[in-house]
Amino acid sequence: MIVRNLPCHVDIAIVGGGPVGALVAQRLARQGRNAIAIEARQSVDDGATDPRALALSWSSYQNLLEAGLWQDRLAPTAIGRVHVSQQGSIGRTELTAEELNLPALGYVVAYEQLAKLALEQLATGPAQLALGTRVTGVRSLSRFAELQLATQTGSVSMTARLVILADGGKLVGQIDGVQQTVKSYNQHAILATLTPAVPHNNVAYERFADDGPMALLPFGDDYMLIWTQTPEQSEARLSLDDDTFMAAVANRFSGRVPGFTAVGPRRSWPLALKTLDSVVADRMVLIGNAAQTLHPVAGQGLNLGLRDAATLADVISTMPGHTLGEPAMLQRYATLRRKDAGAVTAFTDNLITLFEQPNVLMKHARSLGMLALDQIGPLRRGFARRLVYGVK
């Protein structure tokens, strides 16, 4: 529900009303916690245009559904199979929902629609929501954290036992004791929708092409393309005419995808890995993109953030109110998330490093690795489970 008069104090303040912040806010509201989500957008219709389509794992779907953040209007496209291959080699592997006894490995949805639904559910559900409120500062006090807020009527302050930062990392620089490391990949991701010449049959593709990894995600009747390039290559690809661009994509899939009949507008953005030396600070927890921003190569960024939110809500559910934000509670959350977040972050980063190696022997080794993964059932199923559920 939308709060018109901001309280001076709450037990828990959640900064950010996107899918990650909304998930933890919904879960806390159902626990009966005195929590409020703080969102800079002025209304539920005040969403920035975001062209991305994201692959959500089955476990992310379950978390969103349980929190009331999943509806048919999202028009989700199921992923029944993922085909992974390398250009110029016979190495390939396939991951299937059937092997994990699941209806789907996950679903592809438009991020813009998911973010809008998340904010609408906060506005109409049991969670408290402060719209049109921007956090301009945050600091830790002895027993509470203090937020400086810019509202439509002026600046105010609010204290909280615990502050959850799910704002994409906008406030990281203000948090004492937390250092962010940024690793530029010197790469851009090209994004575009492509209409396939034949139905995609709910198959997603991850292709390690010679000039950069690329993915095709089933998105309605189309594919969403994410193509990683150097900045110079990206600029050149964006300037191609539609037919030449579609032919370039089809060429890199070597006949696995028969071709395309149309392409939508193309966009690109720079890629970097952002990590923190600690996801907790005095009275504060950072989750989602505030805690880590990943390369899109394995489609794990939002999935990791949603697992952050679900784990944090579970930890809070066991804590008496007066212990919220205390060091023991913060350390418990950090310990529970360390293995999954560290493993997934390292996996995506190492994939980029591994497939950047042009050495012929390395290419053969990668090919053999994918063949082995495809042929060894327990190994393949274990790998698929980690992509779906995270690292336990």
Automatic annotation (TrEMBL):
Pathway in which this enzyme or protein is active: Cofactor biosynthesis; ubiquinone biosynthesis
Swiss-Prot/TrEMBL GO biological process terms: ubiquinone biosynthetic process
E.C. designation(s): 1.14.13.-
Single GO molecular function: oxidoreductase activity, acting on paired donors, with incorporation or reduction of molecular oxygen
Keyword Isomerase on entry: no
Domain of life (superkingdom): Bacteria
InterPro entries membership: FAD-bd (IPR002938), FAD/NAD-bd_sf (IPR036188), Ubi_Hdrlase_CS (IPR018168), UbiH/COQ6 (IPR010971), UbiH/COQ6_monooxygenase (IPR051205)
Top class in the EC scheme: oxidoreductase
SUPFAM superfamilies recorded: FAD/NAD(P)-binding domain
A Pfam family annotated for this UniProt entry: FAD_binding_3
Domain spans labelled FAD-binding: 10-347
Co-factor requirement: FAD
Keywords noted in UniProt: FAD, Flavoprotein, Monooxygenase, Oxidoreductase
Family of the protein in this entry: Belongs to the UbiH/COQ6 family.
Cited NCBIfam families: Ubi-OHases
Protein name: 2-octaprenyl-6-methoxyphenol hydroxylase
The species this protein was found in: Silvimonas terrae
